[in-house]
Structure formats: C-alpha cells, structure tokens
Amino acid sequence: MKPLPIDVVSVQSQVVYGRVGNNVAVPTLEALGLSVAAVPTVLFSNTPHYPSMHGGPIPIEWFEGYLQDLAARGALRSLRALLVGYLGDPTQALTLLRWAHNLSRAGMNPRIVIDPVLGDHDHGIYVDDRLVQTYSRDLLPMADGLTPNGFELEQLSGLPVHDVESVIKAARSLLSAKTQWIAVTSAAPDTWVPGEMKVILVTHTDTEVITHPRIDAAPKGTGDLFCACLTGHWLNGTSLAKAVFLACQQVVLALSHTQQAQCAELVLSPLVRYPTMADMHM
Question: For labelling, which of 109, 186, 264, 278 has a CA lying 20 to 30 Å from the CA of 216?
C-alpha cells in the first residue's frame, strides 16, 4: 500500500480550545488543497491569557519520534514545505534543525517558512528567552522565508523598526543566500493612520508595502493564519507578492468575522474569493 502523501509539515502549537498554531494552520492549508502533517510543539488546553491553562511542551523524545516516524512511514516523498511556528523550548529547535538537515541529505529540499514566534509590543517576549538566540543562530539560517511581526523583527535584528525605512533595513540584515524574503506583519507602527496597518515584504532587491484595514478585534492566532495562508498560496504557484497580499486579505476577513460574531477566539472565514490587487493600496 502507498503512504499518504504529505505536502506540508506544520510544526507549531496545538490547543484543545481556540484558534492558534496548528488549529489555524491545518484547516487553512487544507482549504487550499494541501495535505498537512501537524506536529505539535506544545499541547495546551487554551492560550495563556485565560484564567486557567493546562498542558505544556511535548516531551523531546515524543517530538523527535513524531518527526522520525513521518520519514519512516514514507510520507515525505512529496514534501513541498516545512512550516515552523511556536516552539516549546530550544531543544525542539535543535531537533528540528537536525531533522531538516537529514531531509536535505536524503535529497528532499522543501521550502522552509519560519514564523519566529517570540512576542509582541503589547506583551513583550512570551516564550522561553533562550529562543531568541536559538532562532538567530540555528533556525533563521535554514529558512527560505520569515514572517515575524514588528516586535519579533526588532528582537532578531537588534535594530529599530518604527518606520518603513527602518523595517527594510532590519529585514535585510537577516536576509542571506538561503533566506530570500521576509514578510513583516504589524510593521512600521509610527506610520499608521487611524483604521489602517501595514505589512512589508522585503527581498534582497525589492520591497512591497501593503496597507490594510485595522479591525477592532484582537484574537490570538492572526500571525499563524497569515503565515499558513501565505505559504499555501505560494506553494500553489501564486507569486510571493500576491501570496502576501492574499494572506493579508484573509486575516482581515477573519478579523471581520470575529468582530461580527463578538467572539473571543479567531473565527476562520472560507477561502473562496479575493478582491483584485487594485482593491488595496500597495
């Protein structure tokens, strides 16, 4: 019997209740026609901002086993992308790095997209402090693309990121022969006007500044949705710039649905129709 072919391995958090991490990435990627293997880094009852929470990081022997068994089942022969989000501790990062190197030695070279989840301007760093160095030293060099928010870009680059020019400078400081692009969400806050926000896509040679509506809703998981949607469209043959635009639009749609439902958790909206590029100021 043939193994189930996997297009994307998504390595990030999982919750029993809520819409973050793989709870967002898996339905988003599947809606784009991709087969996904979800590898949890942590398993929580819900996100930490609730009065109670149970769970914790996945034991490292389990985490290693999840990755090893995917290869042992022959499921990775058609692997096209590795998506990395929230990590439980630095040990997981080192395990992931070794596993990715083994894939390369076996002749598999999936696109690697990393969302370096560290924190945000409102709450500061909300992961193990050691992960900042771990991302910079071990994970960022293996990424084809990154999707940090403005706070995370500042942490990783050590540079200010308050306006468009400083975001571009900070992002380009992280680019390399391997890492070809960075899509920065919640970017350049000093340049926002009421009711709008920015996402900035930076490559070695080009920059796209996407202005999108700012919705009065703040559920967790919007960064996870953005990264999964961008990755899925990019894998499906959409240009990188358009994939970023479509990911922005999907987040805005989800936030609009969340606001209308008055829901504390992100309400995912169907990936069915998008406006044209002319509908949004670039």
Answer: 278
